[in-house]
Amino acid sequence: IVVDLQKEILQHLEKKAEKANVGKQVILHQCNQKSLEISKYRNTVDFSILCAVVHELPNQEHAFREVSEAMKIGGCVLFSEPPGHAKKRDFENQSILRKSLTGSNGCIEG
């Protein structure tokens, strides 16, 4: 599941996925500025990558809660931010993820 706010990014990724013959395996989902809108994926995600996104989230606690709810028990979340973009305070709300994942043999890296 690829989630992005920008339709153009999703269209670009769709073309790349089709070129790599994985288009049927990739779900593209456009979110909005207030929510990832991924509630229909509750307890279905094994591995989540938040790449260069944490510093862009207006409500990190809400977004982390949404990711947490989408994760399967034992799932893993990887955070990756460009140097200087995210501050320690940006990750303070990841405790929501940590509580839901680490108690079930999950992991959080970043």
Question: Can you lay out the helices and strands and say which pair or pack?
Answer:
Layout lengths: L1 E3 L2 H13 L8 E3 L14 E7 L8 H11 E10 L14 H8 L4 E3 L1
Parallel strand pairs: 1-2, 3-4, 4-5
Helix pairs in contact: 2-3
Query: How many whole angstroms does the radius of gyration measure?
Result: 14 Å
Distance between the termini: 20 Å
- Series of secondary-structure elements, N-terminal to C-terminal: EHEEHEHE
Query: What is the total tally of β strands?
Result: 5
Shape: globular
Proportion of residues in extended strands: 15-25%
Which class do the helix and strand fractions yield? alpha/beta
Largest sheet: 3 strands, parallel
Could you list the spans in which at least 5 consecutive residues all have pLDDT below 50? none
Strand order of the largest sheet: 3-4-5
Mean pLDDT: 81
Q: Please give the count of helices.
A: 3
Helix content: 25-40%
What does this structure look like?
- It is a single chain.
- With 110 residues, the chain is an alpha/beta fold.
- It contains three helices and five strands.
- It has helices spanning 7-19, 60-70, 95-102; strands spanning 2-4, 28-30, 45-51, 71-80, 107-109.
- The strands form two sheets. It has a three-stranded parallel β-sheet with strand order 3-4-5. Strands 1-2 form a two-stranded parallel ribbon.
- Helix 2 (60-70) packs parallel to helix 3 (95-102).
